[in-house]
Amino acid sequence: MLDLLEAFATVIEHTSLNQAAKRLNISQPALSRQIARLEEELNVELFNRNGKRLEVTRVGQLTYEFAVDIRKRQLEYLKSIASYKSEGQKIVTIGASLTTLQTTLPIFVNLFKEQYPEAQLKLITGKTHEIVSLIREKEADFGIVADAIHEQGLISIPLLSDHLELVVPNNHELSNLSEWTMEKLNGLPMLLFSNGTWYRKLIDDLFRRYRVMPDIRMEIDSFEAIGRLLATCQASALLPKSYLRTQWLKDNDLTVVHLKELEQTERITSLIYAESALLSDSFRQFIADSAGRADW
After folding, report:
1. Three-point CA angle 27, 32, 37, nearest 5°
2. Is beta strand 120-126 parallel, antiparallel or unpaired with respect to 91-97?
3. For residue 84, what pLDDT is reported?
4. How confident is the model over 175-201, as a mean pLDDT?
5. pLDDT, tens digit, for every residue of 109-142?
6. Above 80 in pLDDT, residue 203?
7. Ramachandran area for residue 153 (φ above 0: left; ψ -120 to 50: alpha; else beta)
8. Rounded to whole angstroms, how far apart are CA atoms 132 and 91?
9. Whole-number mean pLDDT of the chain?
10. What pLDDT does residue 92 have?
11. Cα separations (Å) of 97 from 127, 144, 271, 292?
12. CB-CB neighbours of 36 under 10 Å
């Protein structure tokens, strides 16, 4: 009967069988049969039918109030179940786009394990559109992607705004140059991300815009490998600001050179989950706290 009550409440709230049927994703005749079945089971008339108009009866109004109360109780029950699971040995599946693997994801996983030490994590990686599909199909509980997602049925929470920075060895001949411009990258030995990666596309677009042709010495997929090789190769690289931790720069004898033009490479990293996801209150608070952090 719960499904019949929900169908009846939807008709009242949309004031139309046609609109309610669309909301429930069923045909209008099927919805009419559900209402008739509910009236039969209750042995009352829920509507006065005046042509195509439906006017709710007094007992129909009482039934609607009961249906709303049942809906509220059901939602509270499901939230309680979700909260119970989150406190136990729940396997939480995180989808992560490839561009977040070496930057945002490790930090987020550490925060998550601090908050939920008993939870078991499963990580799935892929391109941004693949992670979005995983969330929609409920194959992942939530995802971390290097993009701002605006799609119906999904909640997208911005975590940080990132952009590329120029990184050179401390003893690089240009490391102490007071004024850098994009023209200085012409002929400059550089290590770049491999073709096909999002960061490489971003960098190639930047080079085309400013008509820059650097001396590309090597193409690598790993931030870590690029960082270790820069001093040895006496080369430079364009790396995401979020990866350039003070200790990492110190360990690899590197320095950051600010180029104003690189601010145009801004990219939003977001946490996404489905609107229909049954998230506990504690986890929703965790998401809010994560989004408010200043140390990403």
Report:
1. 125
2. parallel
3. 56
4. 84
5. 888 888 878 778 889 988 888 999 999 988 898 8
6. yes
7. left
8. 19
9. 85
10. 82
11. 5, 6, 11, 21
12. 12
pLDDT for 189-201, tens place per residue?
A: 999 988 877 778 8
pTM of the complete model beyond 0.85:
no
Alpha-carbon distance of 203 to 193, in angstroms, equals 9
As a residue count, the chain comes to: 296
**51 exposure class (CB count in 10 Å sphere: 0-12, 13-18, 19+):** exposed
Query: How far is it, in rounded angstroms, from Cα 115 to Cα 87?
Result: 10
pLDDT at position 86, please?
55
Residue closest to 239 by CA, chosen among 255, 220, 223, 258:
223
Three-state SS for the chain is CHHHHHHHHHHHHHCCHHHHHHHHCCCHHHHHHHHHHHHHHHCCCCEEEECCEEEECHHHHHHHHHHHHHHHHHHHHHHHHHHHHHHCCCEEEEEEEHHHCCCHHHHHHHHHHHHCCCCEEEEEEECHHHHHHHHHCCCCCEEEECCCCCCCCEEEEEEEEECEEEEEECCCCCCCCCCCCHHHHCCCEEEEECCCCHHHHHHHHHHHHHCCCCEEEEEECCHHHHHHHHHHHCCEEEEEHHHCCHHHHHHCCEEEECCHHHHHHCEEEEEEEECCCCCCHHHHHHHHHHHCCCCC
Structure tokens at 89: 């040995």
Residue among 165, 140, 163, 116 nearest 289 (CA): 116
Please provide the distance, in angstroms rounded to a whole number, between the alpha carbons at the two ends of the chain. Answer: 49
In 231-266, which positions are buried (b, 16+ CB within 10 angstroms) versus exposed (e)? bebebbbbbbbbbbeeeebeebebbebebebbeebe
Around 157, how many Cα atoms within 13 Å sit in the side-chain half-sphere?
A: 19
